[in-house]
Amino acid sequence: MVLFRRLTFAAIALAAATALTALLFSALAPGGWSVAKFLIVVCFGGAAPWLGICAGNAVVGFALLMLSGNPARAVLPKGADPTAEKIPERTVLVVTIRHEDMALVLPPLRRLLDGLDAAGFGDRFGLAILSDTQDAARVAAEARAVAAFQADDPAPARIFYRRRARNDGFKAGNVMAYFDHHAAAYAAAIMLDADSEMTAAAVLQLLRILHSAPHLGIVQHLTVGLPAEAAFPRLFQFGMRAGMRVWATGQAWWQGDEGPYWGHNAALRIAPFRAHARLAPLPDGSTILSHDQVEAARLRAAGWGVAMWADETGSAERNPPALPEFLARDSRWLAGNLQYLSLLAAPGLRPMGRWQLLQAILLFAGAPLYAAMLALACVAVALGETASVPAGRTAALALAWPLVLYGPKLLGYLQVLASPAERARYGGGARFARGALAEILFTLLLDAPMTLSKTFALIRVLTGHGSGWAAQNRGARGVGWAEATRLFWPHTLAGIAAFAALAHGSWGAALWAAPFAGGLPVAIPFCVLTANPRVSSWLRRAGIAAVPEEFLPPPGFSAV
What we know:
Elements: H1 2-28, H2 35-67, H3 71-74, E1 91-97, H4 102-118, E2 125-131, H5 136-151, E3 159-163, H6 170-182, E4 188-192, E5 196-198, H7 200-212, E6 216-221, E7 224-225, H8 231-255, E8 266-269, H9 270-276, H10 292-301, E9 305-309, E10 315-317, H11 323-338, H12 351-382, H13 391-405, H14 407-417, H15 420-425, H16 429-462, H17 481-505, H18 507-517, H19 523-529, H20 533-542, H21 548-551
Parallel strand pairs: 1-2, 1-4, 2-3, 6-9, 7-10
Antiparallel strand pairs: 4-8, 5-10, 6-8
Helix pairs in contact: 1-2, 1-13, 2-8, 2-12, 2-14, 4-5, 8-14, 8-16, 10-12, 11-16, 12-16, 12-17, 17-18, 17-19
C-alpha cells in the first residue's frame, strides 16, 4: 500500500514537471536556439522538481479532502487513533525563548495550562521554559515575568525555568540539555516555539495519537497562523492556511509514518529522542541550524515513526508582522536548510529521511533559478530572439505554471468554496472569495521580491555570511519609507531594468511578465503598505482575509 501511494505521487509529480518543461521547450523552439533560450530551459528544468512536488501533493490532498469524511484520520499511520482514551502519564510542555517579549509568550501558555486543568489533566503536565537570552536587560525582565507567571499558577512547582549562559547548539542544544538533566519525570514532550499557541484539546489529541501507536516517536500537528490585524501576516496566513491544509494532507497520505517534523506544535517521546536525535556538528565543525528535519531523519533511521496529524484545529503560530521580518526568517531557514547538502549522504539514514532533507533544500533552490530565468528572458527578448515564440504556447505556459506552483493553495480555496460548512466558517462564500482574490494579488506582488531576496541570501551563505539563531521581532509595527528603500532599492532597480529590457524588445513580453515580476518595481511601496496600520484596519473592518477563529475563537485560543 505504501509503495502504491508513493508511486502514485511520483507519477503525478513527474507528469507535471515533464509537461511544463516540454511546454516551455516547445514555446521557445521556434526561431532556433540561442544561448539565452537554452539556459532558460536548463534553469526551468532545475526548478521543475519543486513544481512536481507541488502538483503531487495538491492533487492527492485535494482528492482526500473532497472524498474522505475525516481526511486527517484517513492519512494517519495504521494503529494511530486520535480518540484513544489513554495518554502518557507525564508530559512536559517545552518552549524555547531567546530575546522574546514575554507579554506575547506567556499568555498562550497560561491559556493552555488552564485548559489542561479544566479538562482534568493538569496534574499530568509540567511546563519548561528554556531560555537562551543573552542581553542583560532582557534577562532581568524575562526572569521577573516568569517568576510572576509561576507565582500565579495553582501548582507553581510544575513550572521550570532555566537560562543558559552559553547557547551551545542553539535551540536543539537547549532542548537536549533539558532532556538530559531535568526531564526524568516525563515520558513525552509537547514542543512549542515562542510564538506557538495550542489548545488543550489539540495537545491531548496529539498525545492520544502518540500513545495509541507505540512505534511513533513524533506526531506533528498541522499549524496555521493566528488571527492577525496587521495586513502582511493577515494576507499571508490566509493563503498559507489553504495551501498547507491540502499540502499536509496529500503529503501525509504517501509519506505515512516517515513524515516531516517542524520542531514545534508537535508531540514526541523523550527517551528515543534523547537516544537517537542528538545532533553532532557538521563535517566542517559548524552547528546545525535547522535541526528539526535532521532529528526526525535520525529517529526514522532508528526505526521510530514520524506522523502528521493533518488537522488545523487548535494549533497555531504567530507569523512575521511585516515583510522585513518575513524575509529575515526566510534567510535563516535558507541558511539552515542548505546545510543539509552535507548530510544527504550521511550513513544510516533511510531513503525517506534523505528525501525530507532534499525537499527542504528544494524549497529554496528554485529562487536563483527563477531569478536567472528572468534575466535570461530579458536578454532574449531585448535581442529579438523570442519574436517567433507562439502566442498560444506562451499563454498556455503563463497559465499552467502558476496553476501548478500555487496548486495546493488554489485547490485549498476551491475546497472551501465547494463546502457549505467551510464557507460558513469563513463568514460566507462572498467574503471568502474576496479574501482569496486579495491574497492572490498579494502573493503575486510578494513572490518576485522574495525570489530576489532568497537569491541574495543564498549568495551570502555561499560566501560565508550566513545567519545564526538571531532574535526575532514578533510584534506588529509599521515600516517607514526610508527603511523600505534601504532594503528594497536593489529589487526596484532590478525590476525597472527588467521591464525596460522587455519593453524595448516587445511590449507584449512586458505584459506577459507583469504577473510574475511586477512585484519588483513596486517592492518599496508594497513593503510600506502591507505594514501600514490604516491598510491593516481597513482589511479588518472589511473582513478581508478573515480566518474562522476571528468569528468563533476556540476555547483557550487567542483572537485578534
